Amino acid sequence: MTAGASARRSTATDLLADDAAAPDVEPTSTVAGDPASAPPGAAEPPSARVVPLPSRPPVPAATAPPAKVTPTAVAPNTTARLPAEPVADVAGPAGSDPQPASAAEPADAAGPGRRARRRDRRGPNLREQRRLRTREAIVDAAAELFAERGFDHVSVIEIAQRAGVVEKTVFNHFPVKEGLVFETDPPMRAALLDAVRRRPAGESAAAAAGGFVVAAVSQLGSPEAAEGVAEMARIIRGSRTLQAREREILGTLTDTLAEQITLETRAAAGDLEPWLAANAVLGLYSALLEAARDRVLAGASGPELVTELRARGRRGLALLQFGLAGYAKRP
C-alpha cells in the first residue's frame, strides 16, 4: 500500500499485479480441505511491492521495475544534475549578430525527408530519467526520516532538504505527505479486479478474490519482503494519520470490488449481497495483513512463515466459502 511508489514500501495496497495471474490457492475445493496439505515448497506468486501502507515501497526506475522490499536500506541521493543541452547558434543575415536556434528553423528540424532533431529524440528520455532519480531520492529520504523519527514527526521541508531538492519539488511528485507512504491508486486494485474477471467458469467472485488475497499476502513473510514489511508496520502503527489513510484505501478497495460484483450480477441498486461479499474478502485481507505484520515484527520470516500465513488464509477463505461459495459464480 505502496510512499507513492517507493521501492522501500511493503504494504497492503501495494501487492504486485503478478499475484493475480496465478494464485496458488484453490478457493472452491482446496480451501475447505486441510490447510496443512499444501506442500511447503509450493510456488508462490511474487510478493507485494513495497511502499508503506501496509505496502510498500518501490519507485520505478528508468529502465527496470522498482525493487521489491527494502525500507531500511536507504540509498544515497542519486539526483545528479544532468548537463544542460548546449544551444546552437544560427547565423543570420551577413553582418548581423548570431540568432538563437529558437529564432530560426534548425538545420535538422523534423520535416518531409528529415529526421527529428537529436534534442527532440533524446530530450524526453533524459528528462524522464532525471525525474525518476529525483522521485527516488525523495522517497529514500522520506523512508529514512520516517524510520528515524516516525511519520508524524517529520516535515516535508526536512524531507526536501535531505533529498537535496526544494519543498515545491516534493509536492510536485507527492501532492500530500501520505503519498510518500501509500499509493494513490494501489496496484492491488487492478490485480484484484483482474483475478475476479479472469476466474474460470463455476468459481465465485469471492473465491477468486479471496484466493488472490491469500496467495499475495502470504508472500509478505518471505525473506525478501519481511524487512520492508517490518519497517512499514512500525511506521504505520506509529501514526494515526497513516492508520486512518490505510482504512480509507481499504474502504476504496472494498467499494471497487463491490462495484465489479454488482456489474457482473446485475444486482439492483441497494442490494446488499455485492457489498457483503466484498467486505468479507477485504476483511480477510486486512486480518491476514495484520497477522503478517505481527509475525514479522516478532522476528519470523522465511518459508515457514509463508506456509503459516498461507494456512491461516486458507482457513479464513474456507469460512467464507460456506456462505459465499455459490454466490456470483461464473456461468
Report on the structure:
By secondary structure, the chain is mainly α. The chain has a domain of 205 residues: Tetracycline Repressor, domain 2. Helices cover 50% and strands 1% of the residues. It has ten helices and two strands, in the order H-E-E-H-H-H-H-H-H-H-H-H. The chain has a two-stranded antiparallel ribbon with strand order 1-2. The longest helix has 32 residues. The N terminus is likely disordered.
Question: Key features?
Answer:
331 residues, mainly alpha, Tetracycline Repressor, domain 2, two-stranded antiparallel sheet, 2 strands, 50% helix, disordered N terminus
What is the topology?
Blueprint: H1 18-21, E1 89-90, E2 99-100, H2 118-149, H3 156-163, H4 167-173, H5 187-197, H6 205-218, H7 223-237, H8 240-265, H9 273-297, H10 303-324
Antiparallel strand pairs: 1-2
Helix pairs in contact: 2-3, 3-4, 5-6, 5-8, 6-9, 6-10, 7-9, 8-9, 9-10
Give the strand order of the largest sheet, numbering strands 1, 2, ... along the chain. Answer: 1-2
What is the overall shape?
globular
- Report the helical percentage: 40-55%
Q: In CATH terms, what is the fold-level topology of the domain at 12-73 and 182-324?
A: Tetracycline Repressor, domain 2
What is the distance, rounded to the nearest whole angstrom, between the alpha carbons of the first and last residues? 33 Å
Radius of gyration: 24 Å
- Report on the biggest sheet: 2 strands, antiparallel
Number of E strands = 2
| DSSP strand content | under 5%
Number of helices: 10
CATH top level assignment of the domain at 12-73 and 182-324: Mainly Alpha
What is the correct CATH architecture of the domain at 12-73 and 182-324? Answer: Orthogonal Bundle
Backbone structural class: mainly alpha
* Helix and strand sequence: HEEHHHHHHHHH
| Average pLDDT level | 74
Which consecutive residue ranges, at least 5 long each, have pLDDT under 50?
1-8, 15-112
